[in-house]
Inverse folding.
């Protein structure tokens, strides 16, 4: 048994070596056929440059869409905050704290130079005075901003949640 065991590794190495050599020879010969065909036909393998594909923009400007998304998000927070306060889910301290955070979010919201930006400025002025959204100036500014978003091809969705009757 000892002799058989000693010969096995050498035999495996020879078989693996023979298979490897056969594969290398096969790859070399198949490659030669391609080269011979290219040279025989007079072709030269030159890469063909392709122009980069420029994506066609669809939908609204992404910055404008972001601004409209902010209008939706912050308006949703105002609606939810008022609902939770009115239904007793928030006490006075929590309500005032959330309104202060909402006011900061509106006032310090980054703005850009889009068709929506002037409408956001109007909302920011109203939110600085009363972030709850309870005053008519705020309601008018939000409605105008929402309409401007929709006119520009973006969405600003401001609706109550189902539990609020929306």
């Amino acid at each position: 048994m000892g002799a058989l065991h000693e010969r096995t590794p050498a035999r495996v190495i020879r078989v693996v070596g023979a298979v490897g050599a056969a594969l290398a020879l096969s790859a070399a010969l198949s490659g030669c056929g391609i080269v011979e065909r290219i040279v025989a036909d007079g072709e030269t393998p030159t890469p063909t440059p392709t122009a980069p594909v420029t994506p066609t923009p669809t939908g609204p400007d992404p910055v404008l869409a972001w601004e409209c998304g902010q209008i939706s998000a912050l308006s949703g927070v105002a609606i939810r905050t008022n609902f939770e306060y009115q239904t007793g889910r928030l006490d006075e301290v929590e309500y005032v704290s959330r309104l202060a955070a909402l006011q900061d979010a509106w006032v310090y919201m980054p703005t850009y130079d889009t068709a929506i930006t002037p409408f956001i400025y109007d909302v920011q002025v109203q939110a600085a005075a009363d972030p709850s959204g309870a005053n008519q100036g705020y309601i008018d500014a939000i409605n105008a901003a929402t309409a401007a978003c929709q006119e520009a091809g973006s969405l600003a969705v401001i609706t109550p949640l189902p539990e609020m009757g929306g």
User: Anything to note?
Assistant: The chain is about 65% helix and 0% strand. Helices lie at 2-41, 62-86, 92-107, 117-129, 136-151.
